[in-house]
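We emphasize that the prediction below concerns an isolated chain of 346 residues; any contacts that depend on oligomerization or on bound cofactors are therefore not represented. The input was used exactly as deposited, without trimming of termini.
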Amino acid sequence: MPHSSRPLRKLGFLTIGLFDPADPGAGHESTLQVIELGERLGFDSAWLRHRHLQFGISAPIAIMAAASQRTSRIELGTAVTPMGWENPLRLAEDLATVDLLAGGRINPGLSVGEPMNYGTVKHELYPDSAELEDFSYARVDRFARLIAGEPVREFYGRQGVVEEFSNRVEPHSPGLRQRLWYGAASRKSAIWAGANGFNLLSSSVMFPEADQEPSFADIQQSQIRAYREAAATSSQARGQARVSQGLVVIPTDSASAKQREKYQRYVDERTPRTRAPQGPKRMLFAQDLIGTSDQIAEQLYAHAGFQEVDEVAFALPFSFGHEDYIQILTDIATKLGPALGWSRAG
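Result of the prediction step, given as a token string:
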């Protein structure tokens, strides 16, 4: 049996919210049902990927709002919202509103950079300012300041008979700033997140430094350590340095023979990309973990990145069906989680 001196403290899962474009409502309802199942199984958190112009969730804030009214305890997050698609002030208003509706359970995960395939969409996304938009860390920093309640303008107070105005984003949700996460895949981003008071989402994609050997687990470990070092010396971090690891894990304990065959085929198709860095940026992908819960736990305990965390948000495979997700989540909560020392909430 696997063993560790440090038990897993928080167990979460991540879903893309896949849907059929011919019947998108069914896919969105499936996602809500999966989140409800996660709460019943005791998961600490459910996270939504953020996809634009694809067949996955494009409006996770709306999904979190709906889920907040169908659950009472499980935390809800995005992993991640690409800020290049967002107006920071409007996003701050929406997230603060949903956080209040959820009773302080929202965990926004963010990233920066030019939107994917920007040249194909910039004429609709930013028709008058496409070449002027700032997709740097400044965009997410501005969002964080607005969430924290810093002034937007000097003007506030009463105007006319009934109009009352604020100089900060309203509504304000106390505590939401401390629940902001940054999705970092490079050492530079990890250090920035730590220095600027963000929690760290470390996923299944890494960008190694030029002098680093292409070992995903070792690179992830070094990035997490660099993040914690930056957070420890940052006044903005306020002593917090939460780190969550996201890998694809597929426990097969209760899977049918047909499911096991499908799962293995999925992993086999994706494994070749993990064997060497990809593209000019030398992108590294983590290998999917498949097997019984004890087998997966043993692999995780040997994983240098996992050794640095006590929170996870295991990613559900993109293209599986609703019944597959039920089986995988049930095995994670009842078998894999306990094998990692986790105790269910509630």
